[in-house]
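So, could you explain the following?
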Amino acid sequence: MGSYKQHALEERWDAIVIGSGIGGLATAALLSKHAGKRVLVLERHYTAGGYTHAFHRPGYQWDVGVHYIGEVHNPASQLRALFNHLSDGQLQWQPMPEVYDRVIMGGNTFEFPSGRERLREQLKRYFPKEASATDCYIEAVLSTQKAADLYFAEKAIPRPLAWLAGGLMRLRFLRGARQTTLDVLRGLTTNPDWIGLVTAQWGNYGLPPAQTVSAYTRS
């Protein structure tokens, strides 16, 4: 357990960030590193990090929120480069375990293995009649990811460039955003158990499949 301490603060700051979650810390680091600003981060908890840290109790440890992040295992990924930049390369990543999630439905336990192809094969073992749906599902996830990457990149580029290229960068995402995740999956199969399994992690992104945007468009 930590403890609260009082510290004398300087009177003038260029920026004040309220909350030391991953967004607040990233913002503060970028303002300090790139803009040369004097930044004050305010946090009412005794541990910085928000949903990125863990609780410890005698004999137990559990994550507050974030417990896995994709693409950081790849040294060439942009996300890994961003984290390296923010942390001066000091952030170390723990590999995903062989089985990173277990889902229990109707008395049956289903395991999610790490690695895209291992997950693909596991889903086919659980639902051999849905092999085609499984392949299409993996394609849909990758397609949605690509569409989302361009969509959100448009929000980060300089405004004049966004004015010129933003329409094209948003096009693929917006074209597919007319359908929900559930719409897409029901177009792949009518098997409710398969759909339930591949959407069982919906709590990670906050809304049930009938309310999340898929942005899936076939290549």
Observations:
- The chain has a mean pLDDT of 90.
- Strands lie at 15-18, 39-42, 54-57, 60-63, 99-105, 108-113.
- The radius of gyration is 21 Å.
- Residues 99-211 form one domain.
